[in-house]
Amino acid sequence: MKYWILIVLFLIPSLSWSEDKGMPSSIKEVKKQHEARLLELPGVVSVGIGLNKNGQSVIVIGLDGPNAETEAQLPSRLEDYPVEVRIVGTVKAQ
Known about the structure:
Number of helices: 3
Helix content: 40-55%
Strand order of the largest sheet: 1-2-4-3
Order of helices and strands: HHEEHEE
Strand content: 25-35%
Shape: globular
Largest sheet: 4 strands, mixed
Number of domains: 1
Distance between the termini: 64 Å
CATH class: Alpha Beta
Structural class: alpha+beta
């Protein structure tokens, strides 16, 4: 009986560690990790999550207007998720 308890005590932590390692991040986590850096770019006014025309989840980067220089700096993917750039205009707090 003591051996089973020892096996379980050592096995459970190793299983939970191996599950976390290599697990893909959710789209919400990826957005959160990159949001601050993206918002520092000129013309970027929002970073969100949306759907593309095919219904696929994407990270949406909103620009206040066309900005070729900023658009050239934006990635087409963040980790495993596609990025879509949209012109949303100026964002004002309500």
